[in-house]
């Protein structure tokens, strides 16, 4: 709209009219669950809040349904509190959903985060220009930056979060550990100081005893963290952790502590006001992780008994009170197999996974943060905090290459499963949105709720099956595998779940014989339905070489490297398929224009998604018997020899190039480092060879598949 010269305010109004349904996407539906508080319209807070973030969290602060009654979708946190919102955005985010949804939007710089969402000067200018009285920082970016909070305080602008003392005390992993010890919180053995050099890191690691965890002092969210099992990994981990920490947080200080092998990652949500009141809002199980970043979370945990939960909650509150904490915050613990728990860190902000706590407690955490920032006391006592039901969150993003290198692209088709009950989707995108190399690759947070864990898991399975994402790769198949895995269902999990279950990375669902027959039969039925439809024009028949009355077909379906001959007959809406020695009956509403096809296969209900993109879960090709015979004469494409070339596995920015033409490299030696979505990845040689040519240099932006280095 803006391209045609419309004022920004009118553009946002037209956007709101056109995409009004977006305002109800962040909702959980459950007829029995209710929030324990109703907003008091006489309780004055702020007239205008600036949201210093982007994507789904910016939309959540502005637009989340507060779930006062789960059957109503039109009441949103800031909106229902009578608060106007200001969005900030980079130039590439000018058309982003969070920018369009806000009452006002201000560009704060170009795409790189250091020049936009971390640009305090530009954000302060936006606050002054719009007259915002308070700032909600979301998570990441400036959410735990004490200097930003100080600058806001100096100008009389409220920071919707804790005060600078708590941010500094808990944001520094070294200081927070010392404070936790003093507050009688269980802590992990380690070095209580900043590690200055690589050699010092090696010495400390040897003294603590391997394995050790190297992590950013100012970090969080898995950034700047490495596990080291020997001296060489310590040297490499020190380098990468310091670089990632500097890039993500502007602070490259590191600490080292003992790595607790095979633990659970369980965190306690706390909420405190400025009057000395503090509560623990139960736990979240966050053990399903890859590269130290959470993938699936649930609340409550299957592992904790009431006594352990109480002890963890009380220690979390002790820590919050020790730093005079006031806002929503999270105390993270590692828990071993004997239910011993150790303080990991405290996040002085809203967590990504906060929705599952909202589901089981009935508290709107954003509303509580706003109230506390204005100076109100908490409404609740500890005995008021319930555990009602079970909630599960799946983080939707891309897991494929190397188990999680990021994917970028444009969402050519996007459909959230909000037609299902008990489903909530927190997202900041829509069909046509771009997933950029500059920001976190998460597409959305998919949350399901049930009276029991089994009910929440069944709802999650349905929601994943009904979630349509086209144009970028995504991890929905992996998420579905996780929640249906016997170990996950039984609660037998740890932070090593993914590497143990998928030691070579996730390769997709492995079909059993009966499920393979079902898939092949479905593809054949879909193919025939499409062929029959193509014979008709507005109800009439085209001239076709195929007899109109044909109800018997001989086909060949290719799946992977296999070819499967089959015979298909049709009676009414039912296809009967003979394939691989078995018989499969397939029926359904064959709406070929829909991305979702609900089918009945041998009496069981199935949801099928059909796409021509290369990232589909299963690639099938259906051929007539004659076409299959002729296809055997087609030459096969010879795969590229990748042993002598290095191509970029993802879009990103070259951080370092470690070789030059003429150098001899050994197998496993680092050739270059590429950064994407705030994570650095070392690319290595697969064999010993001499470097023939180098096609990249530090600072360059490269695309997926770009040639970086050639070897002789």
UniProtKB/TrEMBL annotation:
Gene3D superfamilies xrefs: 2.40.50.100, 3.30.700.30, 3.40.50.20, ATP-grasp fold, A domain, ATP-grasp fold, B domain
Gene Ontology terms, MF aspect: ATP binding; biotin binding; metal ion binding; propionyl-CoA carboxylase activity
Where in this chain does the record put each Biotin carboxylation domain?
Answer: 45-503
User: What's the superkingdom here?
Assistant: Eukaryota
Q: What is its EC number?
A: 6.4.1.3
User: Which class of enzymes does this protein belong to?
Assistant: ligase
Tell me the Pfam families matching this sequence: Biotin_carb_C, Biotin_carb_N, Biotin_lipoyl, CPSase_L_D2, PCC_BT
Report the main location listed first in the record: mitochondrion
Alphabetical list of InterPro entries matching this protein: ATP-grasp, ATP_grasp_subdomain_1, BC-like_N, Biotin_BS, Biotin_carboxylase_complex, Biotin_carboxylation_dom, Biotin_COase_C, Biotin_lipoyl
The segment(s) forming the ATP-grasp domain are 179-374
Its UniProt pathway annotation is:
Metabolic intermediate metabolism; propanoyl-CoA degradation; succinyl-CoA from propanoyl-CoA: step 1/3
Query: Lipoyl-binding domain: from which residue to which, for each copy?
Result: 637-712
Keywords from the UniProt entry: Acetylation, ATP-binding, Biotin, Ligase, Lipid degradation, Lipid metabolism, Magnesium, Manganese, Metal-binding, Mitochondrion, Nucleotide-binding, Phosphoprotein, Transit peptide
Q: Where in the cell is it found?
A: Mitochondrion matrix
Task: Give the cofactors, semicolon-separated.
Answer: biotin
> Which GO BP terms sit in this record?
lipid catabolic process
Q: How does it assemble?
A: The holoenzyme is a dodecamer composed of 6 PCCA/alpha subunits and 6 PCCB/beta subunits. Interacts (via the biotin carboxylation domain) with SIRT4. Interacts with SIRT3 and SIRT5.
Q: What is this protein called?
A: Propionyl-CoA carboxylase alpha chain, mitochondrial
Q: What is the lineage of its organism?
A: Eukaryota, Metazoa, Chordata, Craniata, Vertebrata
């Amino acid at each position: 709209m803006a391209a045609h010269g419309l004022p920004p305010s009118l553009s946002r109004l037209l956007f709101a009219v056109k995409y009004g349904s977006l305002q109800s996407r962040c909702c959980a539906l459950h007829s029995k669950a209710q929030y324990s508080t109703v907003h008091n319209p006489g309780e004055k807070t702020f007239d205008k809040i600036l949201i210093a973030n982007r994507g789904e969290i910016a939309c959540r602060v502005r637009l989340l349904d507060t779930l006062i009654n789960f059957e109503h979708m039109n009441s949103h946190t800031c909106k229902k509190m009578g608060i106007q919102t200001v969005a900030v955005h980079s130039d590439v985010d000018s058309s982003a959903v969070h920018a369009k949804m806000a009452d006002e939007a201000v560009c704060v710089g170009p795409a790189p985060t250091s020049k936009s969402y971390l640009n305090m000067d530009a954000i302060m200018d936006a606050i002054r220009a719009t007259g915002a009285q308070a700032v909600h920082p979301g998570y990441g970016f400036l959410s735990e930056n004490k200097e930003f909070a100080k600058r806001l305080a100096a100008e009389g602008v409220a920071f919707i979060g804790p005060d600078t003392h708590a941010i500094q005390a808990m944001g520094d992993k070294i200081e927070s550990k010392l404070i936790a010890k003093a507050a009688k919180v269980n802590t992990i053995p380690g070095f209580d100081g900043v590690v200055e050099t690589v050699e010092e890191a090696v010495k400390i690691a040897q003294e603590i005893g391997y394995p050790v965890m190297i992590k950013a002092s100012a970090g969080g969210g898995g950034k700047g963290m490495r596990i080291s099992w020997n001296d060489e990994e310590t040297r490499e981990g020190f380098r990468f952790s310091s670089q990632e920490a500097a890039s993500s947080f502007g602070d490259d200080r590191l600490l080292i502590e003992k790595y607790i092998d095979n633990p659970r990652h369980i965190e306690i949500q706390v909420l405190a006001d400025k009057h000395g009141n503090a509560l623990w809002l139960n736990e979240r199980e966050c053990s399903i992780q890859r590269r130290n970043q959470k993938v699936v979370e649930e609340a409550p945990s299957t592992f904790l008994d009431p006594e352990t939960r109480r002890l963890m909650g009380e220690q979390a509150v002790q820590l919050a009170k020790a730093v005079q904490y006031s806002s929503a915050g999270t105390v993270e613990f590692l828990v071993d197999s004997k239910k011993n728990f150790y303080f990991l860190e405290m996040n002085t902000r809203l967590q990504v996974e906060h929705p599952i706590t909202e589901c089981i407690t009935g508290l709107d955490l954003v509303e509580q943060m706003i109230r506390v920032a204005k100076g109100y006391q908490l409404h609740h006592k500890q005995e008021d905090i319930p555990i009602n039901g079970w909630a599960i969150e799946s983080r939707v993003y891309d897991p494929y290459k190397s188990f999680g290198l990021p994917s970028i692209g444009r969402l050519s088709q996007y459909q959230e499963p909000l037609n299902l009950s008990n489903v909530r989707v927190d997202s900041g995108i829509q069909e046509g949105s771009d997933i950029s190399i500059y920001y976190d690759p998460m597409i959305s947070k998919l949350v399901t709720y049930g009276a029991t864990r089994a009910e929440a898991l069944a709802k999650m399975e349905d929601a994943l099956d009904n979630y349509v994402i086209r144009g970028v790769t995504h991890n929905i198949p992996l998420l579905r595998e996780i929640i249906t895995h016997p170990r996950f269902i039984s609660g037998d999990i740890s932070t090593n779940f993914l590497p143990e279950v998928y030691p070579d990375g996730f390769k997709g669902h492995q079909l059993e014989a009966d499920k393979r027959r079902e898939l092949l039969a479905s593809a054949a039925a879909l193919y025939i339905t499409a062929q029959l439809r193509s014979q008709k024009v507005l109800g009439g028949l085209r001239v076709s070489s195929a007899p109109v009355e044909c109800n018997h077909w001989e086909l060949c379906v290719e799946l992977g490297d296999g070819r499967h001959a089959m015979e298909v007959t049709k009676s009414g809406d039912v296809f009967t398929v003979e394939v691989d020695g078995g018989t499969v009956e397939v029926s359904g509403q064959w709406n070929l224009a829909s991305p979702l096809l609900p089918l009945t296969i041998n009496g069981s209900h199935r949801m099928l998604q059909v796409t021509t993109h290369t990232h589909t879960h299963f690639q099938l090709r259906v051929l007539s018997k004659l076409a299959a015979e002729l296809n055997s004469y087609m030459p096969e494409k010879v795969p590229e020899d990748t042993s002598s070339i290095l191509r970029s596995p993802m879009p990103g920015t070259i951080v370092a190039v470690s070789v030059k033409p003429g150098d001899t490299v050994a197998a496993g030696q680092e050739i270059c480092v590429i950064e994407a979505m705030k994570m650095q990845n070392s690319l290595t040689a697969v064999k010993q060879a001499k470097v023939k040519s180098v096609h990249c240099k530090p600072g360059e932006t490269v695309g997926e598949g770009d040639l970086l280095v050639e070897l002789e």
